[in-house]
Write a structure and sequence with these properties.
This protein has 175 residues and is an alpha/beta fold. Helix content is 37%, strand content 17%. The strands form two sheets. A six-stranded mixed sheet has the order 1-2-3-4-5-8. Strands 6-7 form a two-stranded antiparallel sheet. Helix 3 links the parallel strand 3 and strand 4. The longest helix has 19 residues. The chain is globular and about 45 Å long. It starts with a helix and ends in a 16-residue tail after the last strand.
C-alpha cells in the first residue's frame, strides 16, 4: 500500500469508524476490503497496515478472497464473498465454511464467514467481449444464492446489489 492508500485507509478509520451509523459487529466497526492482493499489495503490507492503524484489534477487517487460505485468515478477521456470481454458490459457500471452521478449530479463533448473495451479473456493456454474465434466470439465480448462503450457516450474509448498475447486479431490473 502506497502512502496515498495508507492515508485513505487511515482517514476511513479515524473519521468514520466512530460514527454510530457505521456497521458494527459485537461493538466493533467492520471494514470490507476488496481485492486485497491486487496492484502489488501483499499480506505483509496488510499486516503492517493493521499494526499501525489497529494495533489493539478494535476493528473487524473482512476481505474478499477467491480462497479462504490460512495466510489470509492469519491477517484478516473474516472473509466475505462479494460477488456470488463467480462461483457455484452451494459448493463455494460450503468450501469457505469448512475452511474457516477448520482454521478456527486449529487456531482457537473466531474468524467470520459472510456468504454472498447476488441476483445475477452482466458486465458486457462495461467490458465488451471480455465481460462476464451470470443469467438472472427470472429470479432463480437470486433464490439459489440465498439458499446456498443459508445452508453454509454463515456468520453474516451480504447482498451484492447496491449501486452496481453497470454490472447488472441490482435486485430489481432497470433501464
Amino acid at each position: 500500500i502506497n502512502s496515498a492508500q495508507y492515508g485513505a485507509v487511515r482517514y476511513l478509520v479515524t473519521h468514520y469508524t466512530q460514527d454510530p451509523n457505521f456497521l458494527r459487529w459485537h461493538g466493533k466497526p467492520v471494514i470490507f476490503i476488496w481485492d486485497p492482493l491486487g496492484n502489488g499489495r501483499t499480506l505483509g503490507t496488510w499486516s503492517n497496515l493493521r499494526r499501525k492503524l489497529d494495533p489493539h484489534r478494535r476493528l473487524i477487517w473482512s476481505v474478499d478472497t477467491p480462497k479462504p487460505f490460512a495466510d489470509i485468515l492469519g491477517v484478516f478477521d473474516g472473509v466475505h464473498l462479494f460477488s456470488a456470481a463467480y462461483w457455484d454458490p452451494a459448493g463455494t459457500d460450503q468450501e469457505f465454511r469448512s475452511a474457516i471452521d477448520q482454521y478456527n478449530a486449529a487456531n482457537g479463533t473466531d474468524k467470520i464467514l459472510a456468504a454472498g448473495v447476488q441476483p445475477g451479473y452482466n458486465d458486457i456493456r462495461l467490458r465488451g467481449s471480455n465481460g462476464y454474465v451470470v443469467p438472472r434466470n427470472d429470479g432463480a439465480t437470486y433464490r439459489v444464492s440465498w439458499l446456498a448462503a443459508i445452508d453454509s450457516c454463515p456468520d453474516w450474509m451480504t447482498i451484492s446489489t447496491w449501486n452496481e448498475w453497470y454490472e447488472g447486479g441490482m435486485i430489481e431490473p432497470s433501464r
